[in-house]
């Protein structure tokens, strides 16, 4: 993955390499000049154990079950974020008087390390953590720990100055002084979003979500916007804003980001695989913690078993990655536990549960002409919530056995309007011809018209005819209730 470009060679030795190159499918050549302090330190970060682990964690988790090309890793994304952050920093230098070399280094380092704490299958692992109350399964908590302590902290502190790692961690957590450099790391136009939107689209082969990146970057400006809580103004902070010529490009950006969710991140097959993974990991951890390792099919020294025993130990989490889980499935499918054996075999061989799109069914039955009148929308919401509740109750009643039905319900807003002391950093501000800064919703009917994407689904064994009947009977009962 890394290409080395040597400097002058002699007959006795090769002089120190100064330019290191990464050939990237999104950004082409990404170069690191190791004679430059920042780039030398970032290159050292890439060689560290926590970063090399990211080679074995895919950016999109189980999306490759739907999009075979979606095998790109968290490592590739992190390098792309750093590269994009350097481009954004050029805008900061050109258009702001707030030039601060130390803050630049902190922001660029933060862009590089922001995802270092992701666990196997990324966000699916966080769902496991929430179910079991395991704080290090949260990638933000784990990233913070890795940045402040251990190998990454040593590289940052020795490469720059004492306390530098803590400053990087604070910027990622939005703690301490907020300057324009924070926008490079966290804003509507931050380096993270700008990289993954391009990378995920390219690697999945999706034709949705195209953005005019060059035009957006060319029309990025700097503005001071008001921040506050509710209706109380707290102060102002500098952030990226767009000029009036980039309204359409910004609309496409908002829509593109939004489209990634129904087409890729919330794809029914991906979510179904995540469901199986979650149930497997939760059951494994619980069995180990209950002293029943022999029922898992895994040896006592397996990384997953060690993690279950010491979930608060950083080393336990660092030992986990996608390959560890895939390898474990071959053993787990021979487990004494029926759920583990069944679900491991399903996930390993892509024999996933069937998806029943409850919300789509309810919407068609309640509002067949798609008029979206308020009373119909209210009936749809009430119906979906009630069905989900009843199915979840059925699922909980079957605890200990292999559940027959699982519920998946979530939503995604197309545009986050803020609402907290840091919330306004999530808004897109447009500079008008008169020099005023206004929210893009005030200028764009397209953004204003976008509605929240919601899903309510049930997953069931396609060979279990009774399971589908249970779902349809509950749906029919709820539709009858909302019509009366």
From TrEMBL:
InterPro entries per the UniProt record, alphabetical: dGTPase-like, HD/PDEase_dom, HD_domain
Coiled-coil stretches noted in the UniProt entry, renumbered to this chain: none
Pfam families xrefs: HD
Domain HD as annotated: residue spans: 74-197
Alphabetized SUPFAM superfamilies for the sequence: HD-domain/PDEase-like (SSF109604)
PANTHER family named in the record: DEOXYNUCLEOSIDE TRIPHOSPHATE TRIPHOSPHOHYDROLASE, DEOXYNUCLEOSIDE TRIPHOSPHATE TRIPHOSPHOHYDROLASE SAMHD1
Protein name: HD domain-containing protein
Natural source organism: Paracoccus pacificus
